[in-house]
Design goal:
Number of domains: 1
CATH architecture: 3-Layer(aba) Sandwich
Oligomer: single chain
Distance between the termini: 18 Å
Number of helices: 4
CATH topology: Rossmann fold
Length: 118
């Protein structure tokens, strides 16, 4: 079973466009619209190739999701999407920043290359 990318994004339209772009780039995606949903996936057994996280999630900061991923999935590439400056990366985490607004095609191509699909 190949690993999927976890997309934690609360805006439905942004999430839908990005999922389509990722699938076009050959990247399977798991969607989470809240930080709680994202953390549940991170803490589960689903193989993950990367995490794309919006910092402005409705129930918590995306930084909490990043911290959970750093703790439970060491070495997992994390792409932070935000209109603000990216948070500092936790120790041992490679944190890539994609400032909003971004092109779904550019982000999906970056992710595909990052996880070896492009």
């Amino acid at each position: 079973m190949s690993a999927s990318v976890l997309l934690a994004e609360d805006e439905f339209l942004i999430r839908a466009v990005l999922v389509d772009a990722l699938e076009e780039a050959g990247v399977a995606c798991i969607e989470a619209s809240t930080g709680k949903e994202a953390i549940a996936v991170v803490e589960g057994d689903e193989p993950l190739a990367a995490l794309i996280v919006d910092i402005g999630l409705p129930d918590m900061s995306g930084e909490k999701v990043i911290e959970a991923a750093a703790s439970r999935r060491p070495g997992l590439p994390i792409i932070c999407c935000s209109g603000a400056a990216p948070p500092p990366a936790p120790d041992g985490v490679t944190l890539h920043s994609f400032p909003k607004p971004y092109s779904a095609t550019d982000l999906s191509n970056f992710v595909a290359k990052l996880i070896g699909k492009g």
